[in-house]
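Researcher: Predict the fold of GHMP kinase protein.
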Amino acid sequence: MADYSIGEKILEERLYEKETNRPPEPEHVVNLKHGMVREAYELFLTHFGASPVDELKAAVAPGRVNLIGDHIDYCDGFVLPMAIPLYTVVLGRKASDQKRSFTNVFSSHFPDPLVIQRPYDKIVTECLSWGRYIQGVLALTGCGLCFDVVVHSNIPLGSGLSSSAALEHRITLEPLPRGVRSAELCRRVEHEYAEVPCGIMDQFVIALAEHAHALRIDCSRKQREQTRKYIHWPRKSGVGPLNHL
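Model: Structure tokens for GHMP kinase protein follow.
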């Protein structure tokens, strides 16, 4: 098993709050992220073999719960979601051979590997459903590179905790456009590649959440940036998943 320093080394300055200039997170949250990165590193070794740590990058995104306003975001209403301490880790490297025409992805949730062919903007109907989220981000960001990547998550699939939005925000291993632009890009992925007619809430809160704060969002297009408001949510709030923040 890789030691603690592996998770710390691979993440370096890419921890969620550092990447987006958020306030520092509590030590137990940082330790949890490092631990998940270590597990992702072991998964990477299993599928791709040894690789110098300096060649690897990792990125982390949380799941979310919604406290008020289900199904309101695609009606341009108000919602109150917040991030929770369940995470998706994407860890990988640029492929050493960029002449090849595909990206390799392994997930801790699925037994079979995923191969995504270039050009990424060509929608392939036989692509596994979860692969369309990855393909869509690579296509809409104009990425022309190939990667070897593992995805490791403790967000239960199909639980309504936004595992797909967390994956979208981190699959390129590089920051997406900041704030609202990032959320809008990831919603386009849902609409155009995954064919999910969702609202903006999931992508918005994962792009902009702060630790132990709910995020009040006016989902109307003209007001998203101007009217968002962070609301402190006490750790012992009585809301089950939030008690572990």
